[in-house]
Amino acid sequence: MEKKTAILMLQDGTTYKGTAIGAIGTTTGEICFNTSMTGYQEIYTDPSYYGQIIVNTVSHIGNYGTVHNENESSKPQINGLVVKSFSSVVSRLTAEGSLQDYLETANLVGISDIDTRELVKHIRTQGAMNAIITSEIEDLKEIKKRLEETPNMDGLELSSEVCTKEPYFVGDPHAAVKVAVLDLGVKKSILTNFTERGMLCKVFPSNTTFEQMKQWKPDGYFLSNGPGDPGAMDYAVETAKAILEADKPLFGICLGHQIISRAVGLETYKMHHGHRGANHPVKNLVSGRSEVTSQNHGFAVKMESIENNESVELTHKNLNDETVEGIKVNGKKAFSVQYHPEASPGPNDSRYLFTRFLELIQDN
């Protein structure tokens, strides 16, 4: 089968030519890179990546195929894919299909055979920006026009696009502990970490109020990860404020962490190029231990706003750039982290946080 040419164009005009992978077509979104060495299927199905074009920095993608139970949501959430070397050969005996078939089924457009090292250095220097991948348009002027129509991530509310539309349960219905999950774009492996510890989860749509969740009489509340700008999510901030006012056990991850932070008066901002990968060092300032963490976020909490806020304590800090990685709310049963302690497929250094949340509920 003859390979088809694809074009990647960035918002600043930088253009690459490569080979089309996945479906033939055109796609746009904010381009960002992930430094994980494995777990590409988990990355593509993470709702936090909704609407983004992913660059895998590991050079070889697709070699172990796909398996249904490695999905983090019901379908791929990314808008497009950029890789260096794309494998049509699947080496894993348990694979259920090839990545090419997986991408085609999801109608996902991608490009391979470009210098991803150069591309990542460009993003690190110039910052996150919109991009377009096309394997059907050759006119560069037309490509640029399509790219200019793409909305910027800054100011976008996206959780309502990816969250469940109806509440649903995960776990043993007879479990002793019940956790209300506000779905801002929750990953399946987060729910698994709760149920493995004997907790029953009821997952609610992102716009559910505290009063509505409270009717189920949960023992604790969880605000999930998800896509978009926390500054555009006042509805979720109000829910977090109500949970804190009621002094209920509360845990947040990634976007949930940012929402809790805004609920206690902290500020968030769009990062230059974000943190995405499974190799980010974080220091737990309470225990003094360092953890290798999995991360995926383009927004963060301003460190200066913590320094001027007596209601919160900084509990975790990024060792690469000293950004905020975790807080606890003083006088409340509430804490949150910016990184992903469920870390599917790894590392597992931070999964103790799920146990900590369970102990917080049991001590309540």
From TrEMBL:
Please name the PROSITE patterns in this protein's record.
GATASE_TYPE_1
Pathway the protein acts in: Pyrimidine metabolism; UMP biosynthesis via de novo pathway; (S)-dihydroorotate from bicarbonate: step 1/3; Amino-acid biosynthesis; L-arginine biosynthesis; carbamoyl phosphate from bicarbonate: step 1/1
Q: Which Pfam families match?
A: CPSase_sm_chain (PF00988), GATase (PF00117)
E.C. code: 6.3.5.5
Please give the function described in this protein's UniProt entry.
Answer: Small subunit of the glutamine-dependent carbamoyl phosphate synthetase (CPSase). CPSase catalyzes the formation of carbamoyl phosphate from the ammonia moiety of glutamine, carbonate, and phosphate donated by ATP, constituting the first step of 2 biosynthetic pathways, one leading to arginine and/or urea and the other to pyrimidine nucleotides. The small subunit (glutamine amidotransferase) binds and cleaves glutamine to supply the large subunit with the substrate ammonia.
Record's protein name = Carbamoyl phosphate synthase small chain
What catalytic reaction does the record list? L-glutamine + H2O = L-glutamate + NH4(+); hydrogencarbonate + L-glutamine + 2 ATP + H2O = carbamoyl phosphate + L-glutamate + 2 ADP + phosphate + 2 H(+)
Q: Where is this region: CPSase?
A: 1-173
- Binding of L-glutamine, residues: 48, 226, 228, 255, 258, 296, 298-299
Keyword Methyltransferase in record: no
What is one Gene Ontology biological process annotated in the Swiss-Prot or TrEMBL record? Answer: 'de novo' UMP biosynthetic process
Q: Has UniProt tagged this entry with the keyword Ligase?
A: yes
Q: Which gene encodes it?
A: carA
Task: State the similarity comment.
Answer: Belongs to the CarA family.
Tell me the domain of life: Bacteria
Q: What keywords is this UniProt entry annotated with? A: Amino-acid biosynthesis, Arginine biosynthesis, ATP-binding, Glutamine amidotransferase, Ligase, Nucleotide-binding, Pyrimidine biosynthesis
The family database entries (HAMAP family) matched by this protein are listed as:
CPSase_S_chain (MF_01209)
The GO terms this record gives for MF are: ATP binding; carbamoyl-phosphate synthase (glutamine-hydrolyzing) activity
> InterPro entries from the xrefs?
Anth_synth/Amidotransfase, CarbamoylP_synth_ssu, CarbamoylP_synth_ssu_N, CarbP_synth_ssu_N_sf, Class_I_gatase-like, CPSase_GATase1, GATASE
Q: Per its UniProt record, what NCBIfam families does this chain match?
A: CPSaseIIsmall (TIGR01368), PRK12838.1 (NF009475)
Q: How does it assemble?
A: Composed of two chains; the small (or glutamine) chain promotes the hydrolysis of glutamine to ammonia, which is used by the large (or ammonia) chain to synthesize carbamoyl phosphate. Tetramer of heterodimers (alpha,beta)4.
Q: Which residues form the active site?
A: 254 (nucleophile), 340, 342
Residues of the Carbamoyl-phosphate synthase small subunit N-terminal domain: 4-134
